[in-house]
Amino acid sequence: MIENLQARVTLNNGSKMPGFGLGVFQIPDDQTAAAVASAIEQGYRLIDTAQIYGNEAGTGEGIRQGLAKTGLKREDLFVTSKVWNDHLTYDETIAAYNDSLAKLGLDYLDLYLIHWPGDNGYQESWRALEDLYQAGKIKAIGVSNFMANHLTDLLRTAKVVPVIDQIELHPLLTQETMRQVAADHDIKLQAWSPLAQGKLFSNPVMQKLATKYHKSIAQLILKWDVQRDVLVITKSTNPDRIKANAEVFDFTIDDADMTTINALNQDVRVGPDPQTYDF
Questions:
Q1: What digits encode the pLDDT tens for the residues 202-253?
Q2: Helix, strand, coil content of the chain in percent (nearest 5)
Q3: pTM for the whole structure
Q4: 3-state secondary structure of 225
Q5: For binding substrate, which residues are annotated in this chain's numbering (predicted)?
Q6: CB of 120 within 8 A of CB of 153?
Q7: Residue 115 is labelled as binding a ligand
Q8: What confidence score (pLDDT) does residue 279 get?
Q9: Helix, strand or coil for residue 223?
Q10: Domain coordinates of the chain in residue numbers?
């Protein structure tokens, strides 16, 4: 379990990745730089973007501003982007990676993911990621929104095992099956939409627990992830909320309350279902 905002976990290829970071999904490009720079100033070291977000340029500018303000070096940060997989060919995937690097203004990525499995159209994309990784252009490669069947299929031919699977995960969707599958292959899970778009903020069970721990419901949920060894990315453009989201390392949820939160699971999604999502 990570114990602070800069703490890193070791991935299956030996890379070390911060367990807690800022995601920039749905943040307009012209607002992204300020959010990213603020997060870096406040201690965040993991920045997560994607080709489809349309804000890689703003993310790169925020990284440059954050480094300039803090005196940190590029290698102090961990930067993730994702290729939008719609039956991409090998060459199209390579081109997408180079385009992302150019927009970010970086020489390399720490982590590159296939964003969605689509209709099982990821084999060529994964081969491209493997070659980029073997060439030293990416520090680690992984997937996003892959369920057990997708991972099983990918691993039949993969030469490199994904280091992480970034999936929708929150107390309404605890993803116990995926937790076991990932553990079996030494793949870390990383939660997107960890707060379920606020759907638990009026939940009486969570309200009672938040009062008990003198924390917000958001902080309680994020700590629940941390204690389950799930990596977390949170999203905000508000500097105060960016700061508050990271204030989860000064308390511990007891075992009984962890069980209570686990019991809120309804297998309910706030995002698309990877099994049916149609590009």
A1: 999 999 999 999 999 999 999 999 999 999 999 999 999 999 999 999 999 9
A2: 45, 15, 40
A3: 0.96
A4: helix
A5: 115
A6: yes
A7: yes
A8: 63
A9: helix
A10: 17-199+229-238
